[in-house]
Design brief:
- With 83 residues, this protein is mostly helical.
- The protein contains 3 helices and no strands.
- The protein has one domain.
- The longest helix is centred in the last third of the chain and has 22 residues.
Length: 83
């Protein structure tokens, strides 16, 4: 059950992060991976800022912000092309 929760949160957060950054999603698998990586990054950022979230919405918020940061850093180091 935990894996299903991680996949669902990852998919939603990855899509939300890429939608906010690029204006569209990036495909189901990429969104899931981006959301999972974003959850780790977002959790680390929130921990450093002493921000607490809880529940499903808090997980999605944390992961989406992390996904946005991951995409921003990726674009910053030259990995992404600008449209």
């Amino acid at each position: 059950m935990d894996w299903l929760y991680i996949i669902i949160v990852g998919a939603i957060a990855g899509w939300l992060g890429s939608f906010l950054f690029r204006g569209s999603g990036s495909g189901l698998i990429w969104n899931i991976l981006l959301g999972i990586i974003g959850a780790v990054v977002g959790g680390w950022i929130f921990d450093k800022l002493n921000i607490q979230t809880s529940g499903f919405a808090g997980s999605i918020l944390t992961a989406a912000i992390g996904a946005f940061v991951v995409l921003w850093v990726y674009r910053l180091v030259g990995g992404g092309r600008r449209n």
